[in-house]
């Protein structure tokens, strides 16, 4: 079972450090050269901790059943997804979300025994496209809602990955696109966590 204490273990020193620096700013009551940058870093670190705490359930599933690296990638998107419509950042986030989708699908055959024989290619690698999504639906491992979420993550991710060199697209993804894919990913992670806890 996952607990909030596990999520914050190791973060206690970091939190204590942030609190001490905030007290320094109160005591000094002036802004010295370089202090503004220091304060910005403290505020940024506090925001990261807040987002990490708010998403501890999803991050915990990724850490426990995929890897710490995968959880950190998802956390980075959660931290950076708000902001201006910077195309490079938006495309990067969509690529990473597609990779997270692939990481989760790659982990599924150890939890769904018949998936390996039905959803892998001749090299034993999970086919990550529509065939696998439809197989999960057909075998009642997912429902229509998750099918739609998985198709969205997969198809939009493919469009972004393979769009280089194409003519001007009719519609470019925005931060709203990233938000919608993040929420779809959260439900996919929740489904995976339930599968992992019963499998």
Estimated share of beta-strand residues: under 5%
How many helices? The count is: 10
Kindly, what is the distance between the CA atoms of the first and last residues, rounded to a whole number of angstroms? 14 Å
Mean pLDDT: 83
List the secondary-structure elements in sequence, H or E: HHHHHHHHHH
Low-confidence stretches: 1-8
How big is the Rg?
20 Å
Which structural class do the helices and strands define? Answer: mainly alpha
Secondary structure: helix percent: over 70%
Number of strands: 0
User: Sheet with the most strands?
Assistant: none
Which outline best applies? globular
Q: Can you give a write-up of this model?
A:
By secondary structure, the chain is an all-alpha fold. The protein has 10 helices and no strands.
Task: Describe the protein's topology.
Blueprint: H1 4-8, H2 12-28, H3 35-54, H4 56-65, H5 68-80, H6 87-107, H7 115-119, H8 130-138, H9 144-162, H10 175-198
Summarize the structure.
By secondary structure, the protein is mainly α. Helices cover 72% and strands 0% of the residues.
């Amino acid at each position: 079972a996952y607990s909030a204490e596990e999520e914050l273990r190791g973060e206690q020193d970091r939190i204590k450090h942030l609190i001490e620096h905030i007290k320094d700013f109160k005591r000094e009551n002036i802004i010295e050269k370089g202090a503004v940058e220091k304060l910005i870093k403290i505020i940024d670190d506090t925001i990261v901790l807040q987002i990490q705490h708010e998403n501890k359930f999803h991050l915990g599933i990724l850490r426990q059943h995929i890897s710490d690296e995968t959880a950190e990638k998802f956390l980075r998107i959660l931290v950076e997804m708000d902001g201006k419509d910077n195309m490079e950042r938006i495309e990067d986030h969509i690529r990473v979300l597609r990779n997270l989708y692939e990481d989760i699908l790659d982990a599924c055959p150890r939890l769904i025994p018949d998936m390996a024989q039905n959803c892998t290619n001749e090299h034993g690698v999970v086919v990550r496209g529509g065939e696998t999504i439809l197989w999960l639906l057909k075998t009642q491992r997912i429902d229509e809602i998750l099918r739609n979420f998985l198709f969205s993550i997969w198809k939009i991710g493919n469009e972004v990955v393979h769009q280089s060199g194409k003519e001007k697209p009719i519609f470019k993804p925005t931060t709203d696109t990233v938000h919608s894919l993040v929420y779809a990913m959260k439900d996919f992670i929740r489904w995976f966590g339930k599968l992992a806890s019963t499998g």
